[in-house]
Amino acid sequence: MSENGIPPVSGTGPLSPSPLSPDKAPEPSGVDLARVALRAAKEQARARGAAAQEKRQARRGGGLRSGARADGRDPLPLGAAINRLITERGWETPAAVGGVMGRWPQIVGEDLAKHCVPLRYDEDPDERVLTVQCDSTAWATQLRLLAPRLVARLNEDLGQGTVRMIKVLGPGGPARRFGPLRAPGSTGPGDTYG
């Protein structure tokens, strides 16, 4: 015992590692626990300070401010912004097909473009069908004969496999209107002569 009644600390006490178990890490002592607590308190204070700084910036009318260098928040030219939007949304194929519909006369020729108009594109991966309507059955037949070459030409411009088939529609008939003297529940002349 020492003079003040406290037993002397030896090298094999409960706070020091035992010479028999070198694999076990020493348990944190009071000083180590204090360091861990201080580090946690500093991180919490830093987080509270960052939150307070964000609140002050929000009250002043904005979040982050733009600096001297270009970053993602700077204004973009319209073309670049549209291209970025198309890429982010995955609209490359529909946009390309829309461009083809705008350039239809250059792709198929002036004569065919006067009589055949692209209506829609089904972008379903199993389908990928371009629907075209012609103003007469003769032009619809002509387009059906040219369809394989036209599909090859479109895939050349748009990328292989973009258009698998061209669906050709003939001319649409006039709208069925039966006039003001129609019997209630009637489906038109078909129920009399049908």
Itemize the secondary structure elements and their pairings.
Blueprint: H1 30-59, H2 78-89, H3 92-102, H4 104-108, H5 110-115, E1 116-122, E2 129-134, H6 137-158, E3 165-169, H7 190-193
Parallel strand pairs: 2-3
Antiparallel strand pairs: 1-2
The parts where pLDDT drops under 50 for at least 5 residues are: none
Largest sheet: 3 strands, mixed
Secondary structural class: mainly alpha
- The overall pLDDT, averaged over residues, is 75
Work out the helicity level. Answer: 40-55%
Order of helices and strands: HHHHHEEHEH
Number of strands: 3
How far apart are the first and last residues' alpha carbons, in Å? 122 Å
Figure out the total of helices: 7
Please state the CA-atom Rg, rounded to the nearest Å. Answer: 39 Å
Overall body shape? elongated
Q: What strand order characterises the main sheet?
A: 1-2-3
Share in β-strands? 5-15%
